[in-house]
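User: I'm writing a short methods note and want a consistent example. For NADH dehydrogenase, I'll paste the sequence; you return only the C-alpha cells, no commentary, since I'll be parsing the reply automatically.
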Amino acid sequence: MTSAPTAAQGRTLLLVGGGHAHVAVLADWIRQGPPAGTRTVLLTPHPVLRYSGMVPGWLAGQHGQDEGLVDLAALACRAGVEWLPGRCAALDPLVREVTTDSGARLAFDCVSLDTGGVGRGSAVLGDDPRLVDIRPIEDFVTRIAAMPPPRRVVVAGGGAGGVELAFGLRNLAWAEVRPEVALATGADGLLPGFSDAVRRRVATALVRQGIALHLADARLEGGAIPASETKLEPADLIVAALGSAAPDWVRASGIAVDEAGFALVDEHHRSLSHPCIFAAGDVSARADRPLAHSGVHAVFAGPVLAGNLRSVLAGKHPASTYRPRGNSLYLMNTGDGRAIASYGRLAAEGAFVLALKHAIDKRWIAQYAKLAGTA
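Assistant:
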C-alpha cells in the first residue's frame, strides 16, 4: 500500500480528466489559492468541458453549439494549474505514474481521477457505422454536427439521457423535415428508478411527438437493428445512450475496483487500496453507498473532493464526505418548448419547467466563466 505525501515533501497533484468534480477543484484553487508547495497538473484531452445537460437543448435549437462550455484551460491558468492535453492510457500506483495516450509519463505524489466513463454502445449493441455513442459527449456533438440531418433515428437506452436525446433529435433544429425517432428502452423499461408520475408524463409526451417507444433491448444483427420481434429499420443514425463503462486502464492499474471495474472509493472519495489516489464522477464507485453515475452527484461531490485534496496535501486526513440528498431534481427537456421535472414522487411539466432548467444550466456555466475571466 502506498502512503499519502506529507506536508514537508515537494508535491505534484495530478488531476486526470476535466469532469464536473475537477471543475470544482479548479474553482476552489482560484477562490482560496492553490495548496502551498504543490504543483498541480490537469490532464484532459480538450481545453473545454461540454456540459451534457445542455446538449438536448442544442439539438432542438435552444442553445448554440458553443454554449454550455466550461473553459478548463482558462480556469487552470487562473488557478495556477498547468494544463496538459491528453488522455490517461495507464496508471501505475506503485511508482506513482500516469502514462498518457501520447506515451508521456507523468509522475505524481497524489492523483485524482475524474475522466468520466466510456461508451458501451459497441459492446452492448454491436458494431455498425451508423452507431454513435453519447460518451464522450464532445465526440458525440462533433459527429452529430458534421453529419447530414438523419431521416430516421434509433435511440437505445431508456434512462433520462436517452429520453432527452430522443426528444432533442425529434426536434432537430437544422433538419428541414423532423426526423422519425424510435426509442428502444431495454428490458428495464422507460426511466427505471423514476416515479410512475414522471414515467406517465414522459410516455404521453413521446406519443404526442410521434416518437415510437419499444420496451425491449435493441441489438445489431447482420446490419439490421431489431428490438425484440420489431424491426427498427431503416435507420440513418443509431444513438447509444446505455450508461457508462469503466475505462480499461482503471482495472489494469491494480487499484481497488468494483465488479464493473470502476475505481472503488470510500466516503471521502479516496481509493480503498491506495491513499494517494482519489476519484469522483463516472469513473468511480462509492464502497459505502450506491451512487448513480450522474452529473448531479459529480457536481456536488466536487467541493468535497477539493477539500479532501487540500487536507491530504497538507499532511492531514480527509474529513469531508458527500452525502447525497434523498431525492435529486431532474429536469428533462422535451425539445418542444417544455420540460418535465422529477423530484422523488413529484412530477411537473410545462414551459415554466424548461425556463427553470435553462436558468439553472446557464447559472452553472456562468459561475465558471466569471472565475475564468471569460464572462
